[in-house]
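Example 3.2
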Amino acid sequence: MGEHAPQPDCGLSRRDALLMLGAALLAGPAAAQSPAAMPSCVVTPEQTEGPYFSDFMLNRSDIRSDPTDGSVKAGIPLALTLRVLAVEGSRCAPLPGAIVDVWHCDASGAYSDSIDANFDTRGKKFLRGYQVSDADGVARFTSIFPGSYPGRAVHVHFKVRMKARSGRDAEFTSQLYFPDRVNDRVLASGPYARPGRNVLRNENDGLFRRGGRSLMAEIADAPGGGFHARFDVGVALV
């Protein structure tokens, strides 16, 4: 692992992190429902922010470009839809106004604004951004499918920032995963394929084994190429 990037001062202790994360995969008939449909919510563990979060506060839906030089990251298109839901017992309701950050590595395994044994991208801002959830609790992103970072299964980081019932700022951070069959398909193609690259499967990732099965995105082929991934994030406000 590389050096840890500077972390933002959000004024929160772990005790102040008043959100719990729920994940419910859309399947079968639920996939055809409107964005405001109410799935059941399952509380799942937080997962680490990791060393590569940078709080640039880039308000954008399409995160493929680097605003420092206008370059666009190559890769298989990924349309990512995250829906934030407030959990009340076993019931869920769309939660508007939440700040949803996402960030992940490029096809070669490099994160922006980071330094590692394999890359130095300090000052770059590719594959990062946030959206504010709409009236249906939805935040949408256009990106590329993430590559393989050494020692980790393929994943996308996300963070939800919002107000708790007390009025205090609160946040919750976790990671999304994809089925091995999809990862294998993507990483065998250019620009992902690398001679001798050892791709870590989900069950061999120590973080995935601590709650990753509840953090699997529903993913399907998108019309015109690439993928569309969906995930519901349930937050219990205290």
